[in-house]
Design brief:
Blueprint lengths: L1 H28 L1 H6 L6 H28 L6 H12 L8 H12 L5 H30 L8 H15 L1 H14 L11 H29 L7 H17 L9 H10 L5 H28 L1
Helix pairs in contact: 1-11, 1-12, 3-4, 3-6, 3-9, 3-12, 4-5, 4-12, 5-6, 6-7, 6-9, 6-10, 7-8, 9-10, 10-11, 11-12
């Protein structure tokens, strides 16, 4: 067991190391262009980007709090803020369980049953991820860069995913089947289909706010036309969700930056895209740390 755990950690470090090697190679090979570029940080846009980032993060807290309330547990906003931001920092630890374990532990101290917290986490993550992926897919089709027929198989994959996630009775049965395999306690999802659709649409709106924050952040470092704003919503949602689903690395480190660099390179030179992607990690983490710091004062 110990050998297996060590091997897993080695693979994680190797994957992350390989990704950052190629990212920094882009910077090294184009160092002269980066050095000669007149970097003018737009502090106003940077500050506004942080405001929209905080708005998106605050909405994430509120929606998670709302999901808990529909399941029967009502938390004050201050407690929800502390729990969400403190447990969120667990994503940066090796393994994907620390965030969930932290949230379950902190909610239990607020008299929220473990099963109810776990259900809210699964519902939130499922709706958040699905809305991000569908938003990305819909934009790719509407942009006309690919033909619908080329991605029909992807569309056919998303249809059952939507049915599973948006229909509470179906989602509950599948989730309980998986929990039974791992000999875990059964859960109940007492949320109406209409509520699930509403939550899904709210997450779509949050992706728009995230995309706006990211767009303003990039423009504070490197100028990009406003007509590319929809592209940035797509790019950010794609990189975030893929990083979230990359269970082999903590907080999607390296994976998110790689996706950002790849997609941004269609809009700006790849060496600038690489720098922006790396800075975006610092920008987003700073927002999360600021939220946790505020939680200490609440």
């Amino acid at each position: 067991m110990r050998i297996h755990k060590t091997t897993k950690q080695i693979v994680q470090y190797a994957v992350v190391g390989a990704i950052f090697f190629f990212l920094f190679r882009n910077i090294y090979r184009n160092w002269d262009a980066l050095r000669d570029y007149e970097w003018n940080l737009d502090y106003i846009r940077l500050c506004i980007s942080f405001l929209f980032l905080f708005l998106a993060l605050t909405c994430m807290v509120q929606i998670w709090r709302y999901i808990l309330s529909t399941l029967g547990s009502h938390l004050p906003f201050k407690a929800s803020w502390r729990i969400w931001f403190f447990s969120n920092l667990g994503r940066y630890l090796p393994g994907k369980v620390w965030q969930i374990m932290g949230m379950v532990y902190l909610c239990e101290k607020e008299n929220v049953p473990k099963v109810r917290t776990f259900t809210a986490i699964v519902l939130g993550l499922s709706l958040f991820s699905l809305s991000g992926l569908l938003l990305m897919y819909a934009y790719i089709l509407m942009s006309g860069t690919v033909q619908f027929a080329q991605y029909t198989y992807v569309f056919l994959f998303f249809i059952p995913c939507c049915v599973v996630v948006l229909y509470p009775s179906v989602f509950e049965k599948i989730l309980n089947f998986l929990l039974r395999l791992f000999k875990k306690e059964r859960i109940e999802i007492r949320i109406r289909f209409k509520t699930m659709v509403t939550l899904f649409l709210l997450y779509v709106l949050i992706w728009g706010v995230y995309g706006l924050a990211f767009f303003l952040f990039v423009n504070s470092v490197y100028p990009v036309s406003y007509r590319h704003f929809p592209d940035f919503v797509c790019i950010f949602s794609a990189s975030y969700v893929i990083g979230l689903l990359a269970v082999f690395v903590p907080a999607g480190i390296g994976v998110r930056e790689s996706i950002l660099t790849t997609f941004l390179s269609f809009l700006i030179p790849i060496h600038f895209a690489t720098v922006v992607a790396l800075l975006a990690r610092l920008w987003f983490t700073a927002g999360e740390l600021a939220g946790a710091a505020i939680g200490l004062k609440l």
